[in-house]
Amino acid sequence: MAALAAALAALVSASAAIAEPPGERVLNIGHRGASGEAPEHTLPAYDLAIGQGADYIEQDLQLTSDGVLVVLHDETLDRTARGPAANCTGRVDTKTLAQVKTCDVGSWFNAAFPERARPEWVGLRIPTLEEVFQRYGKRIDYYIETKSPDTADRMEERLLALLDRYGLRKPAAVRRQVLIQSFSAASLQKIHALDPSLPLIQLNSITDTSERLRAQLDGVASYAVGIGPFLSNVDGALVSAAHERCLEVHPYTVNDSSTMTMLLALGVDGMFTNFPALLDQVLAKRAGPPKSGAAKSARGWDRCRRT
Fold first, then answer.
1. Read out DSSP for 133-199?
2. Is 41 known to be catalytic?
3. Which of 35, 49, 92, 208 has the most crowded Cβ, counting Cβ within 10 A?
4. Residue 302's pLDDT is what?
């Protein structure tokens, strides 16, 4: 982490001209909820993230064998699920929803992080996306990722149907209550073809350098409103090139205050963190008024049509 901080410091000093003007809104995105302090992708992790100041909470989507969208990062259950082996090991897409619902996804966290363990984490269940929508409705903002969509049966159509069912598609289009991201350009392009009004974020690989990402931006701008690069691949040249194309930059996953501060100086528009409270504190220390969603005209964004 020290080496990464040093590298980012060098990038900041070389790119100070594009630093974000004080008072502009930078998104605090709860990565799998407040996953540094509670079991990832559980309702308590989402509750905690919201309470800690997250602007968005993230949902990674997997599809069960009977066609239900559930919220889980991995394609397999092995890392975070505990319970009957027949139900709670192996690929999610080979299990029914009933099987998945027998799995405990809290106990692993207590074992992995005893200093943060809580008895109430034991027995937590994998939520469906619908259950998340039922719990929070239109009171919060969602950052949803299609995971392994190329092998999932109509994941995109199922997602849009749920957005419709809970009245979230229009708010997604009008005020970005829902952002949809994916590593799969094909998945995002499919969603864009189904509904061009939805705001999409192209996730980028850990191995994608700034130079490689900059070469892709023109294509990405044809269907997306932003990019999600790995934090160490972000430099001033990438941020500037993205903003020239009206693309936002949301790096992942930033868990220490020094790196948060350096990325803010580079001008990123938001960041994923396992610790939303920490990012909220860093943002609060910045000069100027609190987050307000102010126009980005000071950075040349006045020409970008934003909703």
1. HHHHTTSSEEEEEE-SGGGSTTHHHHHHHHHHHTT-HHHHHHH-SEEEEES-HHHHHHHHHH-TTS-
2. no
3. 49
4. 53
Catalytic residue among 73, 192, 243, 250: 73
What domains appear along the chain, each with residue ranges and CATH number?
2-10+23-73+126-285 (3.20.20.190)
CA distance 218 to 244: 10
CB 142 within 8 A of CB 56: yes
Q: Which of 31, 41, 192, 243 is catalytic?
A: 31
For 286, counting Cβ atoms within 10 Å of its Cβ (0-12 exposed, 13-18 middle, 19+ buried), the class is middle
What contacts 24+ positions apart, CB below 8 Å, involve 99-104? 99/64, 100/64, 100/70, 100/126, 101/125, 101/126, 103/77
Give the rounded distance of the alpha carbon of 36 from its chain centre: 14
pLDDT tens sequence across 66-119: 999 999 999 999 999 999 999 999 999 999 999 999 999 999 999 999 999 999
CA 40 – CA 55 distance, rounded (Å): 17
Q: Which residues pair with 4 in a beta bridge?
A: none
Work out the mean pLDDT of the chain and round it to a whole number: 90
250 is catalytic: no
Q: List the beta bridge partners of residue 144.
A: 59, 180
Coil, helix or strand for 130?
A: helix
Task: Select from 274, 225, 270 the least CA-distant residue to 250.
Answer: 270
Paired tokens of 270: 């938001």
Residue-wise pLDDT for 169-185, tens only, equals 999 999 999 999 999 99
